[in-house]
Amino acid sequence: MSITKAFFVREIVRLRHNIATLGLSLEDYAPDDPNAAGQRQILQNEQKCRELLLDLAEYAADPGTLLARLRIEYMLAQKSHDRYSQSHPLNGASPDDGWWDSLGRMQYLRYLIVTFNRMLKEASRADIEEELRRAVAYKDLGASLQRNEILRAIARAEDSAASRASLTRDDAEPGDLNGGGR
Q1: Helix 97-122 with 63-87: angle, nearest 10 deg
Q2: Residue 102 near residue 81 (C-beta atoms within 8 A)
């Protein structure tokens, strides 16, 4: 199994387990129990983390691209959190949901960066080289498929233009189309 695939599989299994456990634990609380609200918030946070992980799967073909995307997402989350921090200072005022959401996103992304870096450090040089070869082959295949799709579209367009041209009359004069004669 590739390093990035192992990373995503481990993380999605961890999140699925946490979400299921939290969901079951909520059944033990009475609807008006204040502790249930906290548990629901934790459950929602884990679900947001799962959504983020699924969004990041788009970058799973290449470990370098994935690591770069994780860092970019972290920087974006940090900027968002900084904006909330500036607009809602913690000098006695309670932070709002946006502040907590951006903090949670930052923490989860930092966790993913550390975890993925650890997996890369634990991998052998041969495993990393194989992962990079697969990434290059995947990109080459993707580029090849895209190139073939463009060529097919061009061929269809030319075929369509040729078909339309064969349906027009060769003997029609420009004046004939406007109702005028020769």
Answers
A1: 150
A2: yes
The answer to pTM > 0.85 is no
Rounded CA-CA distance 174/182 in Å is: 9
> How many whole angstroms separate alpha carbon 14 and alpha carbon 179?
76
pLDDT digits (tens, 9 = 90+) for 20-31: 999 999 888 887
| DSSP label of 33 | -
- Give the burial class of 97: count Cβ atoms within 10 A of its Cβ; 0-12 exposed, 13-18 middle, 19 or more buried: exposed
CA distances from 21 to 3, 7, 14, 18, 182 (A): 27, 21, 11, 5, 86
Residue 176 is classified by DSSP as H
State the maximum Cα–Cα separation within the chain, in Å, rounded to a whole number.
Answer: 92
The residues, any chain, with a CB within 8 Å of residue 139's CB and separated by 6 or more, are: 61, 62
